[in-house]
Fold each of these.
Amino acid sequence: MSMTGLMRKLVLTAAGNKAVSGFFQKYGMRIGVQRFVAAEQLELTVEAVKQLNRQGLLVTLDYLGESVSSREMADEAADMVLRTMDAIRDHRLNSNVSVKLTQLGLLIDPALCLAQMKKLLAHAKSLGQFVRIDMEDSPVTDITIKLFLELFEQYGADTVGLVLQSYLYRTAADRKQLAALGANLRVVKGAYKEPKEVAFPAKADVDRSYIELCEAHMEDGCYTAVATHDERIIQHIIQFTEKKKIPRDRFEFQMLYGISSSLQLRLVEQGYRVRVYTPYGEQWYPYFSRRIAERPANLWFVIRGFFRK
Ligand SMILES: Cc1cc2nc3c(=O)[nH]c(=O)nc-3n(C[C@H](O)[C@H](O)[C@H](O)COP(=O)(O)OP(=O)(O)OC[C@H]3O[C@@H](n4cnc5c(N)ncnc54)[C@H](O)[C@@H]3O)c2cc1C
């Protein structure tokens, strides 16, 4: 395993430790979590989205939370997503929403989660909005795709889309199945700690698979969200779309809030659609630890923030 891969595994393991999570939950907002999270409250998040929109950036809003263990928590999350959609309408934000199925009760009962999703998608459809289902760790890949297929059949590609991860061996086959239906996909490398039985251990393979998935999905004529900060891959995709004459309204770049912001703006200046995944809410810790794991150098920035206060 490479040094980067090892660091990533170590950070994700440490993140699961109760003492570590307790420390961050207590001091997080003091030490600069807001670099990655727009705000804890929806009202402040709306202002952050307006600011991004003014710069020509599109947004997808993520009400933070995952792996909920009670129906009440799943209900609360669904209500917040509905409120988020209303805020998008009321403030005329150029934004859609992203959701995680485990936040909507998937681990309690898939039927509960499906019912929550139907409620969200019915509302989204009535408002002309779009909902993207994030992809979580490999134990839920199968059920996530299964629920997506059921929802897709009812609501279609204009209302619901999915994420696939290039680090999983299975993804090429999953993409083919979804492309045959015309699904709108976001392609990511994958952010979870996965065993070598299911995911490529070498980064070079993850990157190669990433490019292959994006190219194949665009060549199949499906809308593709190229979600990465990897400049080499972004340049490759730009050249590919020019060569294959893929229209610029058939794909978009996506990046995370607070990461590679100047690259986001450069792409907007060049006339590309760029969407910023903008998380908000109090349950930021798991999201935050994945951002540290991707780039352990981010820890220095956190430590500096802590001692500066
Ligand atoms: C819009 C969006 C949505 C996502 N949704 C999902 C999802 O549903 N499921 C899922 O598993 N994963 C998701 N991810 C995370 C993704 O899987 C990767 O973990 C993450 O994007 C880092 O990989 P990379 O493609 O940027 O490439 P990398 O090769 O990891 O990084 C390339 C370069 O990007 C910069 N960079 C990357 N990460 C960071 C960071 N944390 N801090 C600072 N700089 C960084 C660095 O300059 C790095 O050299 C999403 C990512 C994006 C952008």
Amino acid sequence: MEGLVVKSTGSWIKVRLEDGSILDCRLKGQFRIRDIKHTNPLAIGDRVDLEPDLQHGNAMITRIHPRENYIIRKATKLSKVSHIIAANLDHAYLIVTLAEPRTSTGFIDRFLVTAAGYYIPASLVFNKTDIYGPELMRQLDDLREIYQKAGYPCLAVSALDGTNIEELKMLLKGKINLFSGHSGAGKSALINAIQPGLNIKTREISEAHQKGMHTTTYAEMHMLSGGGFIVDTPGIREFGLIDFEMSEIPRCFPEMENLLPYCQYKNCTHTHEPGCAVKNALDSGEVSRLRYNSYLSILNDS
Ligand SMILES: Nc1nc2c(ncn2[C@@H]2O[C@H](COP(=O)(O)OP(=O)(O)OP(=O)(O)O)[C@@H](O)[C@H]2O)c(=O)[nH]1
Ligand SMILES: [Mg+2]
Ligand SMILES: [Zn+2]
């Protein structure tokens, strides 16, 4: 029997079978110690083989199929253990808010670098546009221009008033999609708006002031009626990059990668080299100063 891992709460794992039913499963002991670098040997999105235990109405996971891809993060920059957020993804969406809470561009860029590092296409979804005044709308336009120019599709939405929810739905159709972002950005609220009836728990208004509280505590994959899935994840405060080689970083900024053929040196790091097309593009505004500063900061950390 085969299935798809849709939720894991430690010892029990929920696996979706081909007929749509969900089975509680356990992992055969041998997997636990194999990959000690990760806190979770099994990830949401993993395809697995099962040995059913008819007597107890559950099953044992006996094999994890090779992953097409996966995305990993560390809890913080300094932490040693990493966590596989999800596997076999078609697309990663970062849910961004300019208010309540505000998502920084540093955070956005770290997320995008990680997705690019794992060859997972990524987009930005700016949520809560219903509460943006004229100043935040201006900032939204600026950010959208910067990120679209860098090669990342952007969509401005509101889970509350329904703005662009249909457009978002179309993008998600038929794919396995990841929703990530800060706690309170509205990941779960958006999934509820996209697929009414799921009734995923979202933060109560009365709890809005309680910082650091996560409403979603375990990642879970939800099925879309039009085909496809969304992985809802617990909010993250910081996006600690896993140990990329420094030489990998330039590739993870698409707008800089595109200019590399025009740099004088084919291994240009766009920092100190003469004849650097990226630095020239900074002067002309073709590459954003904001993105370049993130690039330098990430290079510096790695
Ligand atoms: N005004 C407004 N509020 C929103 C919108 N989307 C979500 N919210 C509110 O923002 C709060 C947080 O929403 P959640 O969906 O729980 O946020 P989350 O990203 O899932 O948070 P975690 O599960 O903790 O990671 C809730 O009170 C939502 O009602 C929106 O588009 N506009
Ligand atoms: Mg949530
Ligand atoms: Zn260069």
Amino acid sequence: MLERVLYHDHCFDGAASAAIFSRLIAGTFHPDAEFRYTGMAHQASQRFDPALFDGDENAIVDFKYSSNPRLTWWFDHHQSAFLNHEDALHYQQDSSGRKLYDPSYKSCASFIHDVARDRFGFRAPELDDLVKWSVIIDGAQYASAQAALELGAPAMKLTLVIEGAKGSAIVQKIIGWMQRRPLEDIIAEPEIQAIYEPLYRRHLENIEIIRSRAHQENGVVYFDLSGYDGEGYNKFIPYHLFPTSVYTVSVSPSGFRTKISVGSNPWAPQEPRHNLATICERYGGGGHARVGAISLPPGELEKARVVAAQIVEELKR
Ligand SMILES: [Mn+2]
């Protein structure tokens, strides 16, 4: 019995969701299931290759819905959960009770945890710490920008590894460990430490690069990371550098996409008024009300700058 799990790759909540979902399936439905994981990334061409659904059961967690008939399970909490109107209709007509969506949850892992408990009677108290941290990390529930950058807790260190590691193999190893081991054990693994240390040095470098490139106007911080191979940055750096800012817009090219990130300051002096997922959806992206992104094809730097400039203007108003 092969259980294929498609999860949001390079995301702490995506990995935690895959881990908790796997425990639910093994603990309640298929004790003998063999799990295989596929990391999903947001790209300019947002389509699900039918070949992805090669399991006896196929699941998607913390990622967009698919109308593929081979999809067995779906859990998501993103505002932008559907690629198009047809997918939303398809979801509404589902009668399996196994396609579950609730955008009010701060993390998909906590959503799966609650559904597992309330609907399927599955409890695994040893996962409670993982659930708690998925809410803190995906929901940006840190005390301050400083605390978000210091990476004091094992879960925050692990987030750096999950977001920054090359390829999906190590993320999938972590998904396996998350099912059975406390986070402090996982971060202490020599293999994880070897990945963590250079990423932490780069994290400190990223603070300086963003400091040198970012500027703030009317509460909006903007920067462009083109030409700097940073492979992502901690999204709270701008709020540490510009504590009075409300929003951040950035452009960061990588090998497989040109990404425009749009975020809001969790510690902003004024409450953010714009829904960032709705703004990003207009340009083919999506996300949550407080944080969103748009993925353009690789090489579309000029277009990304134009889109970013439009969003900056909109957020400044
Ligand atoms: Mn999530």
Amino acid sequence: MELATAITDRRSIRKYLDKDVPDELLIQAFELARWAPSGGNFQSWKFLVVKNRKIINKVANAFQEKVDTFTNWPEAEEYRETAESYRKNASFFREAPVLIVALSCGYKSVADLILSKKGEKDPLAMQMMENRRSVPTSIQQMGGFVAHLLLVLHSLGLGACWMSGPLIAKGEIEEILEVPGGEDVVACISVGYPAENPSAQPRKTVDELVVFVR
Ligand SMILES: Cc1cc2nc3c(=O)[nH]c(=O)nc-3n(C[C@H](O)[C@H](O)[C@H](O)COP(=O)(O)O)c2cc1C
């Protein structure tokens, strides 16, 4: 598939055929997605490819429980209609044949090493550390990886949806998946053969997005 077509034709897919996605196809997707750039090329990421229905259900339940809780709070009243629609659709991935859980595995650049050695008592080191922490490389690089992965999955005829919503139950999901200490769940991606063909969501124009600084 041509790159421009893959980019413009990809949609978030939330409905899937009841059909297994072969491991080989998923491996093929990761073969390409692993070429995503990463901080210092440390590639400090790992991916759990969950195909076990019981485990996917457990993850969905853990998430849905949180959603049911906060959408029932009096504070949700003001947003009743959207909150209700979010509550109804939140754990759509329960039906997905595959749930990919993206793990970040502790990235420390040379800057992080030096700054932490200098210590939090040094105001300049502290300020630099805080600046780095406010835009974590681990999260930035995962965004790049997942964006690659979504395009590759689409080019292979698969549908996927990138989700940050379930991370509201991050601790529970890490427990269900027995994620070891030092590794963090940072994204979930549901995958399957598409059973819907959604129209494109609107995008801002380049003019609205880009400011040239000369
Ligand atoms: C970081 C991120 C988090 C997202 N989280 C969710 C989510 O929790 N649930 C969901 O249904 N879609 C989620 N999406 C999908 C977006 O809703 C979707 O990308 C957006 O509406 C544009 O639609 P498109 O992907 O079809 O172009 C997420 C997308 C991104 C990039």
